[in-house]
Design a protein that fits this description.
365 residues, alpha+beta, 6-stranded mixed beta sheet, 21% strand
Length: 365
């Protein structure tokens, strides 16, 4: 009985200690994910073989950029050279083209205008030696984040291939999603992307996860919900699984002591904590069948816990479904009433070009 009381106290402490929010410092969390991506990209660039091209793309289905595909390509060349290109307005839909201010910024970062570097065509280009891989990695990171508006590297996809389209090995790039395991290159070098997955029955899912460790159970369940594989889940350096839900971001974190799964979301950031806000969050929490809303520092969080002991896949599936719907609805509602920033607000991606508009492309961070 004493052990049960200790476990309950530990659970309560982990769940309700507002001094240690489930997501930690959000800005630092996102910044560390970018740093981790850049560190791994340096290794990939140094090892890029002659004739091998690495494609890095902001996934339009995850980022909400519609038909706009923001991408960077790097190809290994003779003499330990790297040739890189970044998409320009020539390949972007009219509503998502970069304005003059943003074009000036991308050139200031180090890219040459389209057509200046041999072989760059209508894209921004540059050519450097592999010994400059750290500088190129940082340039690519800043272009994807600050110019193309990627809010988090979890929404990047990457694939390395040779001139015939055959997949080439490349080190994992942090939480960015590799397309290698879901790509089939046939004899003609034609790439056919097929997403894996399948709903399956809950009984089968329970049988599959019965003997797994808690973390593996969680990744299996979330992968099933997202119709992908555990290996392809976007997992950040903290071990949190990221799920895009409209204008909100939902994370799934596994805690070992006590066994607990946190399903949480930073509903708003840069919001002013006021008595009216705390009252509102209390009222909303009281209406929630599970979970709670709270504010720490300048961030409003939503959290739904799932017990790790005697783990039930259906409980996690329900928590994820509740949170993804709740976060996407509440961030809009609370933003309209209290201001602050949503994870994927209207200003968090490149804005449509408007004649005479001088405002720079918006980013989350």
């Amino acid at each position: 009985m004493a052990g049960d009381r200790d476990d309950a106290a530990s659970f309560e402490s982990a769940l309700f200690d507002d001094e240690d929010p489930v997501g930690g410092n959000l800005k630092e969390k996102v910044a560390e994910a970018w740093r981790d991506f850049a560190r791994h990209l340096v290794e990939a660039l140094r090892d890029l073989g002659n004739g091998t091209t690495l494609d890095l793309t902001l996934d339009p289905t995850a980022s909400g950029t519609g038909d706009a595909v923001y991408s960077i390509q790097v190809t290994g060349e003779d003499g330990d050279q790297l040739a890189a290109t970044a998409v320009s307005n020539a390949d972007l839909p009219a509503a998502y083209r970069l304005d003059r201010t943003v074009i000036a910024e991308i050139v200031a970062l180090g890219w040459a205008p389209p057509g200046v570097v041999a072989g760059s065509g209508e894209s921004f280009g540059l050519r450097v030696g592999k010994n400059e891989s750290p500088q190129l990695s940082r340039l690519i990171m800043r272009t994807l984040r600050d110019i193309y508006g990627a809010p988090h590297p979890a929404f990047l996809t990457y694939l390395a291939h040779d001139a015939e389209g055959r997949v080439a090995p490349v080190p994992a790039l942090g939480v960015a999603r590799s397309l290698a395991s879901i790509v089939d290159a046939d004899g003609d070098g034609v790439v056919d992307v097929v997403r894996t997955g399948g709903a399956g029955s809950l009984t089968e899912l329970a049988e599959q996860t019965e003997d797994l460790a808690l973390y593996d159970k969680v990744t299996t369940v979330v992968a099933r919900l997202m119709k992908t594989t555990p290996e392809e889940l976007p997992i950040d350096p903290d071990g949190d699984i990221g799920i895009r839900s409209g204008s909100a971001m939902v994370f799934v974190r596994v805690r070992d002591n006590p066994p607990l799964v946190d399903v949480f979301s930073p509903i708003l950031t840069e919001v002013e904590p006021t008595e009216r806000l705390y009252v509102k969050l209390s009222e909303l929490t009281n209406r929630m069948p599970i979970g709670r809303l709270y504010c720490t520092n300048d961030t409003v969080w939503a959290s739904v816990p799932v017990f790790g002991r005697d783990f039930q896949a259906t409980h996690l599936m329900l928590a994820v479904q509740v949170m993804t719907g709740l976060a996407d609805e509440l961030d809009d509602r609370l933003h309209g009433e209290f201001g602050g920033k949503r994870f994927f607000g209207e200003g968090d991606k490149p804005k449509p070009a408007i004649a005479g508009e001088s405002e720079r492309t918006g980013m989350y961070l």
